[in-house]
Amino acid sequence: MTNKRLSMRKIHEVLRLHFEHGRSKREIxxxxxVSPSTVCGYVARAKLAGxxxxxxxxxxxxxxxxxxxxxxxxxxxxxxxxAWPTVHNELRRKDVTLELLWQExxxxxxxxxxxxxxxxxHLVCSRTADY
Length: 131
Description:
Blueprint: H1 8-20, H2 25-32, H3 36-48, H4 61-68, H5 84-91, H6 98-108, H7 117-128
């Protein structure tokens, strides 16, 4: 499960405490009530974006968000989707489970659809509900 982003006010505070005041990541985490790994993540994103002390003037929420969270480019790889009508029909048979069908699909198409179990379950449930 993905975590929610901190508010931009807290992100500004993390960067200000780190870059301008030289506070440790644990201190910052305690001050703004988040985990140290969350602080590390935002500081790493800031360094990757080339930000340093102090933040550039006029670096408002929208600009900072674009720097820290650039949009990801869509994948150029086309992955074959399962044959959903076949999946639906197979599920009607006795002793056939989603897991069994998934294993067969992955054996035939190792680079196929999502490999994350949560995404896999969502895909199967949403697609088979149409039949």
